[in-house]
Write a structure and sequence with these properties.
Layout: E1 3-5, E2 11-13, E3 22-26, E4 29-34, H1 41-44, E5 50-55, E6 64-68, H2 86-98, E7 110-114
Parallel strand pairs: 6-7
Antiparallel strand pairs: 1-2, 3-4, 4-5, 5-6
């Protein structure tokens, strides 16, 4: 599995692990998205929640790495959290496409910050 660097210099996956992926169709295009099954140490302490999305048709396409303004619902410390579901993921995928994400082309992951509302 390849790695790419985000704007903050942290490595990002260039493919999504198949276990735990969920399917979603946005504007007649199928995608797979996932959230880590358990929080990282930082997320447990209230760091932002992140979601990964990738085209369901392109095995090695560009990954969209979304960071939301809220903590995970299962964070260890009390914090404002958000439930991630198909409506939110669909909206973030559309924003990623508008920002230049090309899900079927190979390349480094695109990291986007998305305000959770």
């Amino acid at each position: 599995m390849g790695l790419a660097a985000s704007a903050a210099g942290r490595p990002l996956r260039t493919t999504i692990a198949s276990k735990g992926r969920r399917r979603i169709v946005v504007d007649a295009q199928a995608y797979r998205w996932s959230v880590r099954p358990r929080p990282t140490c930082a997320q447990g302490l209230g760091a932002p929640l992140s979601v990964a999305a990738q085209s369901a048709d392109a095995a090695h396409g560009q990954v969209l790495h979304l960071t939301l303004d809220a903590a995970r619902p299962d964070a260890w410390l009390p914090a404002t959290s958000v439930q991630v579901g198909p409506a939110l993921v669909g909206e973030t995928i559309r924003c990623g496409l508008a920002a230049g994400w090309t899900p079927t082309a190979p390349g480094s992951a695109l990291a986007l910050h998305f305000p959770a509302s």
